[in-house]
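Format notes (please read before filing issues)

Several people have asked whether sequences and structure tokens are stored in separate files. They are not. Every record keeps both together, in the order shown below: the sequence lines, then the token lines. Line labels are part of the format and must not be stripped during preprocessing.
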Amino acid sequence: MPGRQVPVTALPDVRVLGQLLLMQSVVTSLPDDSILPFVMQGLTDIPGVMRVQFRAQSSADDEDATQHFRLACCAHELGELVFTVTDSTAFAPYADHLRNFAFMLAVILEERRQRRIIDAQYQHLELRVAERTGELARERDSAQRYLDIAGVMLMALDKHGRIMMVNRKGAELLGQAESTLIGVDWFDNFLPGSKKVLGRQIFARLMAGNARLVERYENVIITRAGMKRVMAWNNTLLRDEAGARTGTLSSGEDVTERRQAEERIRELAFFDQLTALPNRTLLLDRLKQTLSTCLRSGSQGALLFIDLDNFKSLNDTLGHDTGDILLQQVARRLTHCVREEDTVARFGGDEFVVILAALNGSAEEAATGAEVVAQKILSSLNDVYHLGQVTQRSTASVGVTLFDGHNVSAEDLMKQADLAMYRSKDAGRNLVHFFDPALESAVKERVRLERDLRRALAEGQFLLHYQAQVGSNGRLCGAEALLRWQSPRRGLVIPGEFIRLSEETGLIVPLGLWVFEAACRQLAAWASQPEMAQLTIAVNVSARQFHELDIVDQLLNVIRRTGAKPERLKLELTESLLLDNVADTVSKMSALKACGVAFSLDDFGTGYSSLSYLRRLPLDELKIDQSFVHHIVANPSDAAIARTIVALGQSLGLRVIAEGVENEEQRQFLASIGCFAYQGYHHSRPLPVDGLERLVRRSSCDA
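Then the structure lines:
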């Protein structure tokens, strides 16, 4: 509530009212904590006023020398302005204007109060502004200094676009003294060349009343030193007493660094930092846009998935820095192979993706166009790379899939192109292959198979069959444990249908351990049966399983837990095991052999046979692979290999056994060259445990 009503005895001074109007315009641009100091200092210029105070709560002051003006808005009491009046007659003409000013001030203060509630996290910044405002308020003794308390650029333009007021902050930003800026044409001197004419035209329409004021916007200005700065403006119109537009009053904040930081964040989010190409996120966004465009226009598109061949080897031999240089050169070459409207992106690692948009014509014509680009890419990537002091050649494998926007997602297209790329890899690399739906069907079946395998392992759907092994004395001496999968959906599945997948997925490790434990339990069970107690069991161990760091402890723990006799166990290893870290392999074999476990080298002669590692390995047996046995009678080469293996085993003091013996003729030939131990259909197919036990008992009776 204002204080006592003061009768109006005279007309107000126009200059004082003008100062009130100016204060109203300026207040909207001031920081929160600067408003009341500015207002109280400015209102002391009202005739008849000695002092103006702000009180947070209304008081019951009945002194004749004070006038009270409530600051209230939206049912919120914000305090009051208390005027110490020395001349009530001089003060009276301004009472109504001050009520209006108090209401305007209350609206502004309430809006600022609400903003503070919303932006509480910026209170520390507001405190700094308030401190700075307090310092400047003490120095303020003129209208120009009132403006200088703001921490932003304040500028007034006349109706011709000339600067008629600018504060110190604005002068510093523009790089010119305040006095020399007055009267300077804003548009000619501080806007970029391409924006001068347009900016002046818009301003002229605004001053003529033919355009609405844009209160907030951002633009680029040019400082006197020629530097570009991004400014965020808040604008209001200036009017004369008749209400005509006379210019604008603007507050501007330099947000250059903030916008640069935002652009950097955008680059980090959407662009690869090494190659400056779009990254996976932006790639998928552009692919979705291209799909939509194809659907609307009826055009075709193509997606190319590119993987560098043998990049890991280059990285390992020449170093990651050299590898990075190669990737940067690949990015440039790919960009030069496509049109400007196409997209080249780095998908990750040594993988790149190209989107070919707007391929006109039929699907066949689009495929031809995509093939041309893909071959161009292969040719470009095959050229010599100059990597610092090193020259290097590199190739790539490319997978292509076409699309027209119908019934396919961006994610599905990526999978299709990826599958086609791997088809190029499998076919020998440095090739282009298009996606084939049959390939996708095979992959889906692979996914189903992996899912079923994991369920089978969890639900115990595996079992062991055993194939009898005949010793050099012609009697049954042991058996090889062979894994079988009794699937509720697939029936009885042999290892050839799932072992490779289990190796690729890592399931071979828990699966191999299950086989070993099942075989050990069977050995322990046979130990109490006299006719079975002398049998050995051969168990296959994959290279991946044997490379487990704690494989020795795993196997020995199983032996102890099941009570199996280790001297009745024979582990069959493949030659691929010996490609990596032979010393580690020898160490693990020796530790197991010291506990009584024997070793057989499976599929000997099919891999990387080397006398050097044969001498180092603590082996007990070599196994002739069935691929040599199958044609051993008719094929001299297979016969020669078998003879060599037998002779090698004899010279090294190792037993030799042949697998895959299917008839008597093969058995006799093997015996003639010194190999008497064998396994195969000639003696017995793989049998369930009860079938093998019956076979052993029958053999014992025959003996």
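For reference, the curators noted about this record: The mean pLDDT is 87. The domain at 152-259 is CATH 3.30.450.20 (Beta-Lactamase).
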